[in-house]
């Protein structure tokens, strides 16, 4: 009997294989706490979206009420993007100084003041001053939302959560279009002021909501507050093991020895932002140079391919297509906003499943075809000097297809990609450079669209944007590696080979396969991201 018991114990001590052991690893469930943090942070982006959407329709009534020229309309619509450079340039240092959380509060407060100034504007100069203040708030919001979201997100859903700022930009655009239509029935002098003034309302909700947010764990580590950072990471990670690994990666990047486990530690001055610009711009490593080229390039092409021309000037595009009634033009813009919002929501669920590169390349290819179709339709209508029904339908369809393709890839992935590739100590300033490029190109495009289409015809303008989008597709295909499933602190391994990045990607695949073969460990390291999927 004793022998039998001994044999049973020997057998039971050996690991028993079951059918479940051969199942693929399950994806971790969405972290609800990180989800809520990402939503609150990304609400800052609704401020820019609302301004873009509402100005497209308000410009019609502002031009008539204040008796301004087309050039003044161009400047009015596009200048906010250049003003936002001040905010985005200051946001990197501000967020390192006071924290990501209070930088979000500051963005909302500044935009609140700007929206009120625009709503009470009595002349063009007063209105431009309101645009200046609002623009600074928008610059802050654009930089800090994706940075904060990337820093609180677990790797398994980083792309999903970091695409939220673009979701809220599109939601804001839709709200702006709806506001245009809702207030268009009011007297001309009152309608556009209410359109602009109600933009202050979202910033109030933002200021209240941010009180429930934790500080970024990466910023806390940079301040030496390891205890607070650990508590945030435990809440925002998919597992305790991932939380420990994320903390170890951040400590390493911040220059804190691994054996330091006190709640508060002394941090070297270098990790608090000094010499960052020198390391980023003057003496970058090959990896940092590659990262910088990719981040600035993706922001440049996002705007240079014409999205703001379509969104800001959609009433004029529809007028050129033969729709002359103001109500119908505004309803068409609402349709544009609705399509953009729906497709950005679709994109958020695919960015962590399909990966960044496939969505981005498919998106830009669709944009190229849509821009060619739109240019063709507008050219036919322009040359025939009359309304051609099939060409008008083609133009409206191509505009809707263009914003749909933009929203499934180019729109959200620009923010996801640029916020996740920079190392910790360079992230805030690196992202602010990307946002600066984004806003400069957006401002130039917005302030030249009317002059451009008067010079080369409106169809020619969209053929030009199609050519730029084609260059963008080639750039993305050659230069941008896939980052899906990679840890934030591992990006320097993937970058630095420029167009030969596929070799580094192959090494990371090999390392990942080996770690899976050794029980998902590799020298004590746990691979983050979507398990069981090779990128």
TrEMBL record:
It is found in: Membrane. GO terms for cellular component: membrane. Residues 37-484 form the Major facilitator superfamily (MFS) profile domain. Its main location: membrane. One of its GO terms (molecular function) is carbohydrate:proton symporter activity. Keywords: Membrane, Sugar transport, Symport, Transmembrane, Transmembrane helix, Transport. InterPro entries: MFS_dom, MFS_sugar_transport-like, MFS_trans_sf, PLT1-6, STP/PLT_plant, Sugar/inositol_transpt, Sugar_transporter_CS. NCBIfam families: SP. Belongs to the major facilitator superfamily. Sugar transporter (TC 2.A.1.1) family. This is Polyol transporter 1.
């Amino acid at each position: 009997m004793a022998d039998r018991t001994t044999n049973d114990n020997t057998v039971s001590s050996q690991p028993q294989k079951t059918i479940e052991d051969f199942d693929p690893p399950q994806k971790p469930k969405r972290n609800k706490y990180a989800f809520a943090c990402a939503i609150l942070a990304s609400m800052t982006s609704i401020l820019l979206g609302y301004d873009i959407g509402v100005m497209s329709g308000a410009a019609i009534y502002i031009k008539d009420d204040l008796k301004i020229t087309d050039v003044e309309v161009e400047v009015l619509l596009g200048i906010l993007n250049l003003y936002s450079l001040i905010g985005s340039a200051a946001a990197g240092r501000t967020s390192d100084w006071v924290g990501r959380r209070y930088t979000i509060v500051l963005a909302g407060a500044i935009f609140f003041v700007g929206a009120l100034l625009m709503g009470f504007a009595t002349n063009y100069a007063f209105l431009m001053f309101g645009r200046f203040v609002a623009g600074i708030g928008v610059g802050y919001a654009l930089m800090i939302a994706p940075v904060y979201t990337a820093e609180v997100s677990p790797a398994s859903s980083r792309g999903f959560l970091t695409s939220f700022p673009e979701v809220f930009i599109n939601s804001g655009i839709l709200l702006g279009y709806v506001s245009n239509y809702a207030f268009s029935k009011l007297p001309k002098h009152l309608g556009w002021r209410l359109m602009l003034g109600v933009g202050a309302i979202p910033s109030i909700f933002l200021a209240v909501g941010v009180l429930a947010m934790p500080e970024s764990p990466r910023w806390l580590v940079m301040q030496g507050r390891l205890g607070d950072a650990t508590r945030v990471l435990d809440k925002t990670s998919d597992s305790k093991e991932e939380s420990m690994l994320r903390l170890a990666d951040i400590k390493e990047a911040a220059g804190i020895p691994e054996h330091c486990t006190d709640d508060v530690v002394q941090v070297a001055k270098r990790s608090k932002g000094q010499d960052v610009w020198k390391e980023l711009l003057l003496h970058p490593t090959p990896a940092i140079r590659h990262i910088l080229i990719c981040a600035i390039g993706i922001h440049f092409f996002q705007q240079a391919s014409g999205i703001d021309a379509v969104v800001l000037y959609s009433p004029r595009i529809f007028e050129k297509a033969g729709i002359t009634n103001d109500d119908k033009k505004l309803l068409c813009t609402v349709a544009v906003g609705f399509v953009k919002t729906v497709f950005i929501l679709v994109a958020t669920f695919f960015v962590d499943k399909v990966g960044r590169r496939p969505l981005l390349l498919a998106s830009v290819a669709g944009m190229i075809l849509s821009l060619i179709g739109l240019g063709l339709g507008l050219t036919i209508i322009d040359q025939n000097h009359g309304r051609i029904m099939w060409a008008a339908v083609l133009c409206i369809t191509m505009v809707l297809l263009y914003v749909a393709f933009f929203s499934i890839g180019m729109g959200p992935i620009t923010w996801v990609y640029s916020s996740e590739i920079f190392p910790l100590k360079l992230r805030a300033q690196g992202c602010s450079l990307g946002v600066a490029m984004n806003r400069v190109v957006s401002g130039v495009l917005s302030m030249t669209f009317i002059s451009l289409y008067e010079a080369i015809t409106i169809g020619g303008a969209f053929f030009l944007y199609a050519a730029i989008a084609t260059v963008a597709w080639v750039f993305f295909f050659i230069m941008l590696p896939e980052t899906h499933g990679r840890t934030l602190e591992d990006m320097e391994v993937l970058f630095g080979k420029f167009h030969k990045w596929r070799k580094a990607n192959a090494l990371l695949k090999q390392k990942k396969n080996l770690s899976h073969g050794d029980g998902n460990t590799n020298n004590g390291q746990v691979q983050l991201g979507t398990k069981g999927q090779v990128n």
